[in-house]
UniProtKB/TrEMBL annotation:
Residues 316-405 form the Histidine kinase/HSP90-like ATPase domain. This is histidine kinase. SUPFAM superfamilies: ATPase domain of HSP90 chaperone/DNA topoisomerase II/histidine kinase. It comes from Micromonospora sonneratiae. It comes from the Bacteria.
Length: 407
């Protein structure tokens, strides 16, 4: 808005100034208005009559048609300057046409408009080639085609014509530096925000990978350690039972490798592992329970309510809750009995794992509590809740609720 007001005031100032010159100056060619007399007049004597005052226009009056044409020329060249920023090239060509029609005796009618229009086109026009071509055309139109000599600048205006460009240039340089500093600050702020976003994304991805690796490795390795320990103890007395335990160790290792390959496939960017087995879900609880039973824990699986498909993320989370709870049961309560209950309701999916308690195994010392933290993080993604408490009658209970109405 300020630029528009400035341009309007500039156009008005140039228009008023040049129109005043057109109405009061000698522009009809009857007497030159730019060149002084070649010889000074002789000094007056006492006998000479007093000289007449100098005339700006001929004694018989100016040509009215000529003055009207001059004023129209000034208006056509000066008023368009109000749009010099919005349509710089168009304004330049309007001024060029006016300059080409300017009389030889009065080049000042359009000279100042030519200067302003040329600067505006060079500074604001997006059409660089057309602007560069228009500059020599303007020079020809301003003088060469009409044969007019460019006007001289009066001495009293010389400081003005020096100080004004210097002031404008200094202000433009200051503005450019300020915009450059602001742009640099914005770029640095964006870079910091991007780096922070990358850091947060990296932390979230690391947490997700840690949860997957923990759930996959801890359960299967715990099963393998317990089975291997059992096989070692009964290898001499009951080789057939030891053989079954070693087969369970082999099966657990294969299951661990399968899930690890799947986790690595999730991290692969080229999609080469897209054919791996899908993530486990509630439909694979029977296999999970069978592996825990092979480790010596009696597990009972109960499903209440109408079984129905649930979103894949909820399905995987519910499976991980059962897996982590049974893994902790195997590690911290040897010889216990466990119960797994899956409850489908219209609003939520319930998962509950309880055990009767027992002495901890040797692998219990390796726990760090990361499993339950990971479960809470998983459930929080879906608005779920995890409750872990000791039972009054002994043992432990892990209960999770996952809402289904918002999925």
């Amino acid at each position: 808005m300020r630029n528009w007001v400035f341009d309007v005031l500039l156009a008005g100032f140039v228009t008023v100034t040049v129109v005043y010159y057109a109405l009061t100056g000698n522009i009809d060619g009857s007497r030159p208005d730019t060149l002084p007399d070649p010889l000074p007049p002789p000094p007056p004597t006492a006998a000479d009559p007093p000289p007449d005052p100098p005339l700006l226009v001929p004694a018989d009056g100016p040509d009215l048609g000529y003055l009207l044409f001059a004023v129209a020329l000034v208006l056509s060249a000066s008023i368009p300057l109000a749009w010099r920023r919005r349509y710089p090239l168009g304004v330049l060509w309007v001024v060029i046409i006016a300059a080409a029609l300017t009389p030889e005796a009065a080049p000042r009618l359009t000279f100042y408009a030519c200067v302003i229009a040329a600067y505006s086109a060079a500074a604001y026009s997006p059409y660089r080639v057309a602007t560069l071509v228009s500059m020599p055309v303007m020079v020809l139109a301003a003088g060469s085609l009409t044969g007019a000599e460019l006007p001289t600048v009066p001495n009293q205006y010389v400081p003005l014509f020096i100080l004004v460009p210097l002031t404008v240039a200094a202000n433009g340089l200051r503005t450019w530096r300020q915009r450059t500093d602001d742009g640099r600050a914005q770029v640095e702020a964006l870079e910091r925000e991007q780096a922070e976003a990358v850091r947060r994304a990296t932390e979230l991805e690391r947490a997700r990978i840690a949860r997957e690796l923990h759930d996959v490795v801890t359960h299967n390795v715990s099963m393998m350690v317990i089975q291997a320990g059992a096989a070692r103890k009964i290898m001499d007395r009951k080789p057939e039972r030891a053989r079954e335990a070693l087969l369970a160790v082999e099966s657990g290792g294969r299951a661990a490798m399968t899930e690890l390959r799947h986790v690595m496939g999730l991290l692969s960017m080229d999609g080469e592992d897209a054919g791996l087995a899908p993530q486990p879900g509630l439909d694979q609880l029977d296999e999970l329970v069978a592996r825990v039973r092979d480790a010596g824990v009696t597990v009972q699986l109960t499903v209440n309510g109408q079984v129905r498909p649930v979103p894949s993320g909820v399905d995987l989370t519910a499976y991980r809750v059962v897996q982590e709870a049974l893994t902790n049961t195997v590690k911290h309560a040897a010889g216990t009995d466990a119960t797994v209950t899956i409850a489908y309701t219209p609003d939520e999916l319930g998962v509950e794992v309880t055990d009767t308690g027992g002495p901890p195994t040797a692998s219990a010392a390796t726990g760090n509590g990361r499993g339950l933290i990971g479960l809470r993080e998983r459930l929080a993604l879906y608005g779920g809740h995890l409750d872990t408490t000791r039972r009054p009658t002994g043992g432990y209970r892990v209960k999770a609720r996952i809402p289904l109405e918002t999925i």
